[in-house]
Amino acid sequence: MKSIGNEALNKRLINIRRALHEHPELAFEEYETTKKLRRWLEEEGITVLDIPALQTGVVCEIKGEQEGPTIALRADIDALPIEEASAEPFSSKVPGKMHACGHDFHTASIFGAALLLKERKHEIKGAVRILFQPAEEVAQGAKHVIDSGVLDGVDAIFGMHNKPDLPVGTIGIREKALMASVDRFEIDIKGTGGHAGIPNHTVDPIAISGQITSALQQIVSRRISSLHHAVVSITRIQGGTSWNVIPDRVEMEGTVRTFEPEVRAMIPQLMKQIVSGIAEGFGAEAEVRWHPYLPSVMNDERLTKVVEETAGSLNLDVVQAEQSPGGEDFALYQEQIPGFFVWMGTSGTKEWHHPAFTLNEDALPVAAAFFAELAVRALESRSWS
Question: What is the largest CA-CA distance in the chain?
Fold first, then answer.
């Protein structure tokens, strides 16, 4: 890996990351984070755009000395409702809140990219718009940013997520689906309650829920091609109030994860067929309510070459990115414009959302340099057109 950045910049990025880490804020509550970012950007002479619809989050723009298209870099800024147990000297000072997904790393890295791009204005053939997005963890921030008009005039967008199981200096790249679509479902089963000792006079919704739980797994194993991927998980079954009474109703809830849009489109109808068939077979009624949440992160193949060439120019180790069944609202940007999302190796000790989550700060200048170089090259290549 090529030596990246300078000591002063690296120290600045570490200080920024730690300042954010010590004071985490949850989705749509990132007011102090927003103030800090605005102040730091303005101190550097970087233009902060006025977006009245955004109460939290910051958008800035660096215009090159030459005319051209606009591309965007995105970082998320919100934290999680987790009590930190990392034992880091800069651990969260806010009880019950923690940057346990590394959004402080994303923010500091992309801030670093902004500083590097400011010094390279003469190379920029167009403009780079940088989005410090709120509320990724509740999958509402990207929609809020889009609705506020921030993507207007933007031709392509790039982003990342830290990857604890990849070493610093390694980048994971994958065309097409990288992260899964995320959907939620609810099932209401209405039976006939009664005495637990006389079940033959009831229509037992608890027993029916067991049949439904088992049968829904047939969607993955028997109704979808083995060449495709899907997960159907029942995460809540709730019913009954007493040990000797069969209830008249059971509620079920869960999530579905898929990578291919066509598979995602199939599952709601399959689920309704299975649930209604089983319920009717036992003399009960059932309703399925489907709640679409996020599409899959779908990397645009036209951008692969410039991403790979950027990594190569910095002597980063490039690996085939492993798909994740987690969701990311970066996918909503990709529904609007071409986009590409990568894994950035951070040599972490624990996975995302763990109370002892950590990462190696040596990855900060690596990520900053990568996205600055990528922005310059993407504007040069215009490979999305």
Answer: 82
Distance CA 375, CA 61 (A): 12
Task: Tokens 């977006």: give the residue.
Answer: 51
Sign of CA dihedral 114, 116, 120, 124: negative
CA–CA distance, 10 with 365 (Å, rounded to integer)? 6
pLDDT at 57: 98
Closest-CA residue to 351 (of 317, 320, 326): 326
Domains of the chain: 7-177+297-381 (3.40.630.10), 181-294 (3.30.70.360)
CA distance 230 to 239: 27
Residue 299 confidence (pLDDT): 98
End-to-end CA distance of the chain: 31
- Tokens matching residue 212: 């439904």
User: How far is 275 from 224, CA to CA, in rounded Å?
Assistant: 17
Cα–Cα distance, 268 to 239 (Å, whole number) = 23
> In the predicted model, what is the mean pLDDT of the chain?
97
pTM of the entire predicted model = 0.94
- Report the alpha-carbon distance of residue 124 to residue 365 in Å, rounded: 20
Total count of residues recorded for the chain = 385
Alpha helices in the chain (DSSP H): 7-22, 31-43, 103-118, 141-147, 205-218, 261-281, 304-313, 330-336, 363-381
- Nearest by Cα to 156 from 49, 73, 62: 73
- Percent of the chain residues past pLDDT 90, beyond the cut: 97
Determine the pLDDT at residue 185: 98
Residues of the chain with pLDDT under 50: none
Alpha carbons 72 and 94: distance in angstroms, whole number: 31
Cα-based torsion angle of the residue sequence 344, 375, 295, 329 in order, rounded to the nearest 10 degrees: 70
In DSSP terms, 188 is beta-bridged to: 251, 287
The rounded distance, in Å, linking the Cα atoms of 180 and 259 is 5
Beta bridge partners of 125: 66
Q: How far apart are CA 356 and CA 350, in angstroms?
A: 6
Return the pLDDT at 385. 87
The answer to whether 101 and 326 are in contact (CB under 8 A) is no
**For 91, what's the count of Cα atoms within 13 Å in the CB-facing half-sphere?**
13
* C-alpha to C-alpha distance for 319 and 67, rounded to whole angstroms: 34
